[in-house]
């Protein structure tokens, strides 16, 4: 995952057409920046033609709306899916999403 604009630019220069903005749940580095905070600067760095997928810290629908408003083209969700599965099986996943 990308959390720095300069890395995103290197990716585009290498030929990437999609960037995945992620701090991998900040599991390895608790001081990692929040993806929602770096998203606007990455969008600005790569421009409108590069697809951006963002994940990390997405827990509800309003988080998805914020990410889309700040420049993401799509948003990955993990925790809500797992919570729904644990609480209600397949039906729980549908309700969570």
Features:
mainly alpha, 3 strands, 97 residues, 4 helices, 51% helix
Please write out the topology.
Layout: H1 5-14, E1 18-21, H2 35-46, E2 51-54, H3 61-69, E3 74-75, H4 79-96
Parallel strand pairs: 1-2, 2-3
Helix pairs in contact: 1-2
In DSSP terms, counting alpha (H) and pi (I) runs of 4 or more, how many helices? Answer: 4
How many E-type strands?
Answer: 3
Q: Decide which structural class fits the backbone.
A: mainly alpha
Q: End-to-end span in angstroms?
A: 23 Å
The shape, in one word, is elongated
- Name the poorly predicted regions: none
Spatially, the strands of the biggest sheet line up as 1-2-3
Largest sheet, in brief, is:
3 strands, parallel
How would you describe this structure to a colleague?
The protein has 97 residues and is mainly alpha-helical. The chain is 51% helix and 10% strand. It is built from four helices and three strands. It has helices spanning 5-14, 35-46, 61-69, 79-96; strands spanning 18-21, 51-54, 74-75. Strands 1-2-3 form a three-stranded parallel sheet. Strand 1, helix 2 (35-46) and strand 2 (51-54) form a beta-alpha-beta unit. The longest helix is centred in the last third of the chain and has 18 residues, at 79-96. The two termini are 23 Å apart. 21% of the residues are buried.
């Amino acid at each position: 995952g990308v959390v720095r604009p300069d890395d995103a630019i290197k990716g585009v220069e290498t030929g990437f057409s999609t960037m995945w903005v992620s701090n991998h749940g900040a599991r390895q580095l608790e001081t990692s920046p929040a993806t929602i905070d770096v998203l606007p600067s990455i969008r600005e760095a790569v421009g409108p033609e590069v697809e951006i997928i963002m994940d990390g810290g997405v827990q509800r629908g309003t988080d998805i709306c914020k990410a889309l408003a700040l420049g993401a083209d799509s948003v990955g969700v993990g925790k809500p899916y797992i919570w729904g599965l644990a609480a209600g099986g397949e039906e729980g996943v549908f309700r969570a999403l």
